[in-house]
């Protein structure tokens, strides 16, 4: 989930007053959710939202590239980047108009990476040895094209089938029932194990040239932690003051983007001056910017992504079950995003029918992502919720513009090609920081549980350790898992090599079976009955469907009984929102 996880907004909105935490109101916003800023401001803020999400959007295809046998085909990587831009734009517009209707951006999700990489590590899908050698790869040959396309088609099919499960859960209202059993001790290992197994990939990329990787890490940490409260004066145009200068917390909003661009420029300077080795076998060669320089010239100016561009998707049982594990994690994260976003823009708490609709539309977004062939799904981007608080602009129209910007960036082929030329060690440095923060965000959910309880320490420690140990053993001993049914063997192998599933399942099972009080388990602070909004008319205006469409067929009777669980510790901190807990009622 991109660079926004590093931007901890420290504005005075939502600060403590007389020992109480304030909830932002629409009067504190420059523009509320229903307001429409001037067109030029919409464009500027829309582009800013695109840049805020850029780190996460670009990272997903680059992580998948190696297991898709594409590490030596940056041109195809650029096509994947353009495709994820395009689909994210479509899904953002769908979510704003027909989904939760809050100003929240949609983009690729790290939750799908673990099961995707587990599926691609099956013997059937391991890349042939010759694809690992750049000198043997002819990227235009039909043989090579079929090698990577058959892998991404398999991912497409798995994502499309799993997305149907998410649509069912959302549109039927089952999400409320499921959330009753999911607490901090399930979420903490699940989220942490999204990133922990990726240490190998991050270390390998950074190890291409540790000097460049460390420089990238240093810059990102400098901007996100040390300079985050430094305001940079920028010229702006306002309704009252017209042309004047205003302070922008530039380093707080774009720490990863700035660090990435400066390191990229450093690599360019070192390449031009021949400070980096020119021999392909030498250490640090892949830090040069000219190793992929021909991509920009090869990439078309305009390329329109379309469904089935890599061929007809294929489906395997193993892939589907693995991606479903990612879907569950993604849904839990998104619910937290909805609540955080509503408070940031001064909107009433989202009603159940809007949450059901939002999860259902995210499932539809995953279906579209699978059809277009991003190799991933889509989910709500919490870093953009943080950007809402920084800009104090909660207008829905700004996110509509951001969705249009994503669509345009997906059509301009040169844009995706430019990001595919980022040197490998720069990407490795970025990964080390991003994955570290995602891991910590997962662990932060434990703030709600009693950490003096041996019960809770056992559940978390055991879940995390098994989530690392079991996938490691299965990867080394795949031949031990033989039931005599090939499809069942593949399902078991994918699930047991997905650390997120192993840790999350054990956390879920143990937390719901080992005796413990609600307070001890953290459920008093976790399971919160949705407070009825006093602003009924505004809630209807904010969350009602546009163009007079009724919401009856989006509301399910089975979604009205159970209380929705809110995971505030995870995404509230990701969004840079340290608001504390809202009013908690008894269980």
UniProtKB/TrEMBL annotation:
It is a multi-pass membrane protein. The chain crosses the membrane at residues 38-65, 77-98, 158-187, 207-227, 248-272, 310-328, 398-420, 426-445, 457-474, 494-514. Residues 1-24 are annotated as: Disordered. The keyword Transport applies. It holds the Pfam family Xan_ur_permease. InterPro entries: NCS2 (IPR006043), Xan_ur_permease (IPR006042). Keywords: Membrane, Transmembrane, Transmembrane helix, Transport. It comes from the Eukaryota. Residues 1-20 have a biased composition (Basic and acidic residues). It is found in: Membrane. GO terms for molecular function: transmembrane transporter activity. PROSITE patterns: XANTH_URACIL_PERMASE. GO terms for cellular component: plasma membrane. Coiled coil: none annotated. Belongs to the nucleobase:cation symporter-2 (NCS2) (TC 2.A.40) family. PANTHER family: XANTHINE-URACIL / VITAMIN C PERMEASE FAMILY MEMBER (PTHR11119). This is Solute carrier family 23 member 2.
